[in-house]
Design brief:
- By secondary structure, the protein is mainly alpha-helical.
- Helices cover about 70% and strands about 5% of the residues.
- The chain has one domain.
- The protein has eight helices and three strands.
- The N and C termini lie far apart (about 55 Å).
Length: about 260
């Protein structure tokens, strides 16, 4: 395949391939189940480290006097998340606030990578090392979205046991909603409910971000003089999707953990 002059099918396929590391051979390439998506992992780590560094600098340079614009921005985000936690979380847990803030900002920043030109990372890597496969949006990788959602659901189960104890949580699982005599049905319904949570969290985020990336790829087929107009309009609209998806993921996390404490 000619990297700079691909066919339409080759261009789309190129942007749908992950940069993978085969854990059996330790070579770059698709190796089935035991592979790591290096693009997803690297960007997630870099963006997460950058987010932590920025907020650490904001906290370190915070002042009671006239705050800087950067401090104002960080305080607005923290206060926004803090108010949502107060309104929607009906328990006592010091983890929920930092967890909600981390999820919202991290997912928002990962989603925002979709606004970077689709060919930027792959072109740089191809010129440096001949690597053409690289996906620049970690949240359109179901491995990442499922990892996030499963982590949240593990916390929900953990706090359900911790707050309610084995007896009350067992009663909730086996006796709700049809009473103790229909405990097999209650248990099946509970399994379905707990299974739907990670599915809804992960697939909603993955589906919206994958669709957004695909539209940007299709816009790249338009003539250059039309790409900026159509791409600019879609980028403005996509900013709303990026923010809404981060907000929904955070809110559902708060609600699920609140239900675990009630």
């Amino acid at each position: 395949m000619n990297f700079f002059h691909p066919t339409s099918g080759e261009y789309i396929q190129q942007h749908l391939n992950y940069l993978q590391l085969n854990l059996h051979t330790w070579k770059i390439g698709n190796g089935g189940f035991w592979t790591l998506n290096l693009d997803t992992l690297s960007l997630s780590i870099v963006v997460g480290a950058g987010f932590l560094l920025l907020f650490w600098l904001a906290a370190r340079k915070a002042t009671n006097g006239l705050p800087s614009k950067f401090q104002n921005c960080v305080e607005m985000v923290v206060e926004f998340v803090q108010n949502l936690v107060k309104e929607n979380f009906h328990g006592r847990n010091t983890l929920i606030g930092p967890l909600a803030l981390t999820i919202f900002v991290w997912v928002f920043l990962l989603n925002s990578l979709d606004l970077i030109p689709v060919d930027l990372f792959s072109t740089i890597l191809y010129l440096i090392g001949g690597i053409s496969d690289f996906r620049a949006v970690p949240t359109d990788d179901p491995n990442l979205t499922f990892a996030l959602s499963i982590s949240v659901c593990c916390l929900v189960i953990f706090y359900s046991f911790k707050v309610k104890g084995m007896r009350l949580y067992g009663k909730e699982v086996f006796c709700t909603p049809f009473g103790p005599w229909l405990f097999p049905i209650n248990f099946i319904f509970r399994l379905i409910e707990e299974g739907v949570k990670p599915l809804s969290l992960s697939l909603r985020l993955f589906g919206n971000m994958f669709a957004g990336e695909l539209i940007f790829i299709l816009i790249a087929f338009l003539p250059w003089w039309l790409q900026w107009t159509v791409g600019g309009v879609w980028s403005v609209f996509h900013i709303l999707i990026i923010a809404i998806q981060a907000f929904i993921f955070m809110m559902l996390t708060i609600i699920y953990l609140s239900m675990a404490h009630e």
